[in-house]
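Exercise 7 asks you to align residues with tokens for two separate proteins.
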Amino acid sequence: MASSHSSLEENLKCSICFEIFKDPVLLHCSHSFCKACLDRSWSLKDVKECPLCRKITRCSLLNNLVLKDACESLVEEKKRRILAGTQGAMCLDHAEKLQLYCVDDQKLVCLQCVAWDHQDHSFCSIKKAASNCKEELKTSQEALEVVLNEFDDFKSNCEKITRHIKSQVQKTEMQIKEEFEKLHQFLREEEEARIAELREEEEEKMKKMEEMFKEADGECSILAQLTQEVDAILNGKDDDFLQNYKDINERAQYTIPSLQLDSQALIDVAKHLGNLRYKVWEKMKDLCPYFPVILDPNSAHETLTLSEDLTSLSREYPRPDFPNNPERFTVYPIILGSEGFNAGIHSWMVEVKDCTSWIIGVAKESVKRKEKCSAVPAEGIWAVSLNNNKYSWTSQVPTTKYQRLKIQLNLEAGEVKFFSDDSFWPLHSYTERFTEKIYPFFNCTCENPVKILPVKITVQKTE
């Protein structure tokens, strides 16, 4: 039966390309050829003649429909035999068993393929090729699993940030309402305006987080599907694996998108709560204090607790619900002011009378937030401290405990000075050429608070 099938196949091959006829045409001399083969043959000659008998033809080409149907039937029969065969994968071109793997072309071949199309190529056994390729694909699969885990972690952090945004909005809204309640009924209009601004920011940032989460989720779905496909083909037959290996391996070389959160992902609580009463001071100027520095809760270490007006801090138990956003300090109990300075002279008073362990001063915007660092100028921190009942600016045992300290930052002169509240002379000072934005810096390892004090406001009316 196989011999008869091979003989029939030989009779159905074009004498130009030696392949089974494709779109055969019939000449008046009764010879048939693939239309494309005949067109190529005639394009090189001035006279249209039969490539076999050399008879010149002047008639139009006739489609050999009978031969075309026979060839298509043979091709379909070959495919059916290959798909239904029990002797392993078969060559679609020669209907023979695929016995070798061509290393150069990365495909399975039969013995006729070796003789016709793969001369001087390198070959190996199917078993050896499958083993080598599986090891390579397993490496790609492991890399995909690492990326998938990274996206899972990223999604988890996105979910935590989403929950934190909602918590921030709820808490901030409550505090806004409490502040406005103190200003009585005629400030309701201002209250509603600020809540609307908060809601607008919530919508914007929630939408952004949903987009990032959706993007990460989409990438996870792609990676999960790809991993499943790789796993399925790895567990399949070697011949099926090798037939699909090149395509699946190219797809497995996945380009890792960037996994980075926007540094402004969280609600800007300081914008809504910071100096809130001062901002409506034109209406109630004698009722509301003004604080020169407002703490930024988005930068606070998880062990720090802030007052509702964001002007004092103390250390308590860790709060694992804090998301790991880019602004947040994760190693030490540090927090920065919500506003940085790059010009001018700025000063603020800090009450430290009840706190037994603190570091206060200024820090550059690029200070390390996720790594260990020391509170020294080389690390971008200019500060003084109290630790183990010793002040950093003197080696002497203190005879008195300082109640309040004033920090003065002069960016034009490149100076940071620290004063006691009742002294004209500085306790300590630094001279530095500042090249980036500078922020108020606080470190507290005590349950008693460090407080930023309000400043006195004087009003002078000019004509």
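Second protein for Exercise 7:
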Amino acid sequence: GVIIVVVYSAFSEGMREHMWSLVTTRSLVAVIVVCLVVLGFMLWFTWAVPGWLGFTREDRIAVQFCGTKKSLASGLPMATVLFAGQPVGLIVLPLMIFHMAQLIACGSLAGRYARRWEAAQNHVA
């Protein structure tokens, strides 16, 4: 519930500051692309490095999910303090986009990992 309130607060702040009138379509597309590239790289990196270090599959999954978690729940309060008096909604726009992409990507990964685990359990039994 707290995360929902924080996300709602971030989007509301942006709307109150007329954030969407300050952002061009080209800038928005560029921010989305950069956020997706960063997320993709971090998902790969947090999977590959533990593999190179010999971690188990379960530990690699834990590192991957924990290593990519940067959310509005921690970023918005910090941005509000660090950028007091500035258009915070516009400043946290990349974080809002990254947060949404991260939830979608990690939800998809979690489902895939669960299906593979279930298939492995059915194969063993």
